[in-house]
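Consider the following assembly input.
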Amino acid sequence: MSELRSALAGAVFDGIAKVQEAGLCGMIAFRGDLSATKVKNAVTGVTGVDMPGQRGCNVGGDNGLAWMSPDELLIMVEHDKAELVLETLAKGLKNQHYMAENVSDARAVFTVTGKHAAEVIAKLAPVDMSTFSVGEIRRTRLAQVPAAFWMHGENAYTVVCFRSAADYMFGILSMAAQEGSEVGVFG
Amino acid sequence: MLILECPYCGVTGEETEFHGGGEAHIKRFGPGSSDADFETYLFMRENPKGVHFERWRHVNGCGKWFHAARCTMTLEVFGTYSAQTFEPPKEIKDAISAKRPGWSWREFS
């Protein structure tokens, strides 16, 4: 089998915040009736985290569930477990209408950490970062490409975008994180 | 710049996160309709100064289509509502009436 590689092989940039390509992450795009008990049990069963509410994002270790739209979830698992999880979902969701697709290798994941991490994001996305908090996901754009991000800790953000835009994403995040470019709006 | 609230994901975002989809509440006239009806459906659009209804898509977000009621002159947004409706809901009409008494748009007022 061919060697698995993430988009930018763990590229790192250090500036007012640390931008790092996070490597391989298992991701499953899931669509279905999110209010159905069967669906809730299946997706929380494979990830071990609580069902997120509107714009919610619950992450524990490599696993997580993110609310993408009223009928869509992003299921995060370990990269090599994704196919297995799809099978588990299929078993748990017999006779339930749903769609699940392994999109692990269609995505690039970055982490932005450090004191000015929020500022780096705020420079690129039309989002009020002063009210953004842990447990929340925001699908939006970063500069010119669609992306989603959430906080995985204090001053620590995870950014997800299409793999084809990985190079662009790393470029803009690094540019926004350049040494000496802090604005100081978030204290 | 318009500030719109997506009724599906509750995000209050600015214009660049959304994409305009033209006029709202257009009734389709397809095969079997008269040429006049079909022409009206295809080409005739409102171009009001004031209250207007539009379709928008939360393109850099949840991806859902929704409706927005806004003023073309002041860019004030009166409200946004679900796409699964043939006419603006009462609370949207009331919100417009409160700010623009006597408004009318196509068959709505």
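Residues 12-23+106-176 of chain A form a domain with the Gyrase A; domain 2 fold (CATH 3.30.1360.120). Ask yourself how this observation constrains the way the partners meet.
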